[in-house]
Give the backbone structure.
Amino acid sequence: MLNEKAEKIKNVLFEKTEQNLEKYRDFHFGEFIEKPNQCGYFERNGNWYTYVIDERNFCTFTGPFNGSAIIYACSKVLHISKLFKEYKFTEQELEIYINNSFHSFGEIDKKSERHFDCK
């Protein structure tokens, strides 16, 4: 069952694509599914991340995203970002999208710990 935030993200994606997300059966809303050829988004440490797992089960996480940035990040994963121009990344969000890639939950957690230590 999706939490409230994950459900809102899913609803925005469905609304913009006019329910055509049904054809994206390998995209998972608000949960991480560890199987080849899967993708989706999930929440960890209070932030949102996207993930893509290739056919060899190699996983790449991208984030952290907050607010509308996760919606645009999901649209990028689904190759439908043209439908979501109003959610386009800010410069800072684009930097995160380009430069913050992880390959394990440990890497995500380590990055979060370092980020919070700086406060």
Notes: The helical segments are 4-16, 69-77, 91-99, 105-117.
